[in-house]
Each structure stands twice: as C-alpha cells, then as structure tokens.
Prior knowledge:
Layout (H helix, E strand, L loop, with lengths): L26 E2 L11 H13 L9 H15 L8 E4 L2 H12 L5 E4 L6 H7 L4 E4 L3 E3 L2 E3 L2 H9 L3 E7 L11 H13 L3 E5 L20 H5 L1 E5 L2 H4 L7 E4 L3 H13 L9 H11 L1 H25 L4 E2 L7 E5 L7 H12 L1 E2 L1 E2 L10 E5 L4 H19 L2
Parallel strand pairs: 1-13, 3-4, 3-7, 7-8, 8-9
Antiparallel strand pairs: 2-10, 5-6, 9-10, 11-12, 12-15, 14-15
Helix pairs in contact: 1-10, 2-10, 3-4, 3-9, 5-6, 11-13, 12-13
Amino acid sequence: MKEFDFDEPVERRGTDSLKWSVTGDELPMWVADMDFRAPSAVTEALMERVRHGVFGYSVIPERWYAAYISWWNRRHDFMIDRRWLVFSTGVVPSISSIVRRLTSVGENVVVQTPVYNIFFNSIVNNGRHVLENPLVYRNGEYSIDFEDLERKLSNSETTLMILCNPHNPVGKIWSRDELSEIGRLCARYHVTVVSDEIHCDLTKPEKNYIPFASVSEQCRKISVTCVAPSKTFNIAGLHSSAVICPDEFLRQRVERGLNTDEVAEPNAFAVEGAVAAYSSGGEWLDALRNYLDTSRFVAGTFLQEKIPRVRLIDAEATYLLWLDCRGITEKTRELTAFLRSNTGLWVSAGENYGGCGAGFLRLNAACPHRLLRDGLDRLERGISMFAAR
Length: 389
C-alpha cells in the first residue's frame, strides 16, 4: 500500500474554516471535519478544472453516475441502478427537503437518540415533531429498543423515520437483522425511511457497513438513502452528495422537492471532486482507516491510564469518540463550557444529541496524533480541575 502522511500538520487557522475559527490556543475537536488533506487525485482534478478558467453552470455527466455505481459495487457489494441516483448539494439539505416533501406540518419523525443533532433542526424548523426512540445503553454497548420503536411507528401521525447508518455519534454499524426489522416495522406502519449513510466508508479496517436499501425488497421500496464523499474524503466544502431512491414514485417526489428547494444543481467543482474521490481514492481511504483505528487505540489507552472514570464507547465506524463521563458528571454542557474556558479544548456535549446523551461527550479524533494527544492532555487537565471544584 502506498504511504500517506496523516501526521503532517496542516495549518488551518486563517483559512475561513468553521472548525478553526477559534481564538488563542483553543483546540477545536467538535465538528465532524478532518484535519487531513484530501487525496491528491481530488486536488489534481480540481486544479485541472481551475486551469480551464471558465466556471459557468454545470450539468451532471455520466461519469458522476458511474463513479457512485462502481464505488458502491466494489466497496459495499451493492449494485445501484443509475436511475436511482439524484445529485444534491449536501446530505443535510437533502434531509430537510425530504422532510418537507414527504411529511406534513405537525406529523412525527422518528429518530434514534443519541443522534446527529442537525436531524432535530431539519424536523423542528419545518414544523414537524421529533419522536425519540432512545437506544439502549447497557454494558458499554448500544442496541435498539424495538418495542419502543414499534410504538412510535404505529402512531398514526408518524410518517417518516430518519435512520443513521452507521450511527453518529455512537459509531454503531447496524446488522442486517436489525436493518431488516426496521424495514419490516416501517413497511407495516407505512413509514418512509430516510437513511443517512454519510459515514459509511469510515469503518474500522476489518468492518463494512450494510446499505439499508440492500437488505431486502421491502427496505428498497420504502427508503431514501443520503450519501456523499464529503466526510470520507474531507471535501464537505465542495457541496456534493447524492440521494439513492429505488422506488420510482418515491424518487419522483424526492427529486421534485430537491429541485423546488434549489439543492439539485452542482457548482463547478462538485462533480470533479466526487468523481476523482470515488475513482482514485481507495488506497488513501484504506490508509486513513488504519490511521484512525490507531487513533482510537491511542485514545482508549490514554483514558484507561489517565482518566479511568471516563469510558470510551467501543465503536465500529466514524472518527468520533463517544465518551461516557457519567463517573464525573451528567451535566456535560456545563463540562464542555468549563473545558473550553479553562483548557481551550472545544468538544460537543452529549445533550446536543437527545435526552439520553446526558453524561457523554463527543470528541473528533480525525487529526494528526500530535493534536489528538494534545486534546487528550487538555481533557485530563480540565476534568481534574472540574472534579476538584
């Protein structure tokens, strides 16, 4: 395998980075944005586009479809029909558009908490209601409470479920049986599933995820899947993603919504970045997954030795560390504010991800190991000061 240097520092201050718009020596480890350069194939493709010098309106070429189809077939053993693919400018804009198109004001949308906090915005900001199906946390592992899920889905006002697969922030890869049961219940109660699979490529080296739509014909018919190269290859700023929708009737409604909301047209670089990433980024990604696996080991070892009252939840996917801090406090919003004020470490409070997130922190470990160790040192120092108050 080709060598890639993920230890190389990349100065991001002063680049209008959302993550790195910080003061002093603050260390941001909150938003899911990696501190690694994108694969060289992506950079070269974008530079070639820049050299052309004309940046007018763009269309979606056949090579964009081919890149997605080939990647999911090779990497995830899922053959996508070209007709199922629709371009969009991002997973979040797609989810918000789908919520507006497939549900009515006042209806319920089910989410499995703790879960990506922007889901709540997509639901509440559009006048719909959040129904939480809290995950069961037992002996350091998360599982689905299917009895509670069925109760929530059987509510006559429930019309949509947003599935996070793999799950952010707990890093769970849902099994084929779990996904099949979600599909069975949602089909029974006529609930459409929007599956956010943006973290699907960021699994542990020996793991792979299962696309929800690949599980069964039932899952295929009721699903809208949102995917993107943005998290995988650190190119979120290109605003390039896709919606996979096998059912023709459902796809027509979704596509109409995306066009109505003006989130279905690419900028001059969105296609080039995605095609280059999916066509030539495989080796880079495999090296990245190995590096992130080492990062998780480094963090777990540090916590066991230095902060034993903080537990790292074992995860199979994402580069996000989900930390059980209940041995210190249930009030992690208070803890995160204290950490930032006293150590400069900026992490996310578990309460942001739903009621059952209280007592947890989310820490982004996708950075050079030098920065990760700095963040862990600050975490140790800050928690020591917090506990001693």
